[in-house]
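Tip: read the tokens left to right.
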């Protein structure tokens, strides 16, 4: 006869370099997210692709016919549509990563209680964080491929180096997703989540997306240049127009630091919340 004393509770072990944080199985978290997206959120993913395309057609093709060319800092003059297209590509990467790492994470953390179940398995908090971020990267990659195809069809890729916009978009998405997930872990209400849109909107409007940064006062230029989206816009625009310089390296380093800090924040928050 089985007694309560004879029943042993299975012990969760994480056999990897950092056993308390990482089990080396972030792929399973990503696969679960892909299956959930395919069954419930596929329409939202599709709509995220068309949003920057509509902006491009309305602002770049429509308004651009009245504006003409825009002069880049290096002195090169490009059509207005070719000026805003790479910016919209960077914005699409940001929005896709932010949606996956904020609202999806907010629901899973506060309502679905999905992370509680994940961390009751051999998965560690770094597995969960990396898996969710990989899901955001996959979404950003799909957006980038589709939008670059549209840009190529419209003749807005002005250099062979436009192909390098693909890895740069993944870098941007990685940075925003890693930070977005960590920040969302502090959010408890829908009203608090609205602050995310409050921060994203001025970045979208001011980060040299539709106008050169030189049109702003000098003090405002410094603030804009501290924003991550400005670095993303400049990075992608440099590749699609062929105007690459030493600043490209600094843009890449900016996002590399952002990724490290974001992953550290997210991993620590998940460990503090679910592995008490």
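Filled-in amino acids:
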């Amino acid at each position: 006869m089985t007694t309560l004393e004879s029943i042993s509770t299975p012990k969760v072990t994480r056999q990897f370099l950092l056993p308390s944080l990482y089990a080396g199985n972030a792929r399973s978290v990503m696969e679960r997210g892909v299956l959930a997206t395919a069954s419930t959120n596929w329409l939202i993913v599709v709509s995220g692709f068309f949003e920057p395309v509509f902006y491009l057609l309305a602002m770049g093709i429509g308004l651009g016919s009245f504006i003409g060319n825009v002069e880049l800092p290096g002195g090169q003059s490009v059509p207005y549509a070719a000026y805003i297209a790479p910016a919209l590509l960077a914005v699409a990467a940001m929005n896709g990563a932010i949606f996956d790492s904020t609202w999806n994470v907010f629901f899973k953390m506060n309502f679905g209680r999905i992370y509680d179940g994940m961390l009751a398995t051999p998965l560690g908090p770094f597995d969960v964080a990396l898996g969710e971020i990989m899901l955001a990267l996959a979404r950003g990659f799909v957006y980038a491929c589709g939008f670059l195809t549209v840009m190529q069809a419209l003749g807005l890729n002005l250099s062979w180096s436009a192909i390098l916009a693909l890895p740069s978009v993944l870098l941007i998405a990685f940075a925003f997703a890693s930070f977005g997930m960590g920040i969302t872990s502090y959010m408890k209400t829908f009203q608090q989540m609205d602050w995310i849109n409050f921060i994203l909107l001025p970045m979208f409007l001011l980060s040299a997306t539709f106008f050169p940064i030189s049109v702003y006062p000098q003090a405002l230029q410094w603030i804009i240049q501290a924003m991550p989206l400005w670095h993303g816009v400049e990075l992608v625009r440099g590749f699609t127009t062929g105007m690459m310089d030493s600043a490209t390296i600094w843009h890449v380093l900016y996002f590399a630091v952002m990724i490290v800090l974001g992953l550290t924040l997210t991993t620590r928050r998940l460990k503090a919340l679910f592995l008490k």
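The chain has one domain: 24-274. Residues 24-274 form one domain.
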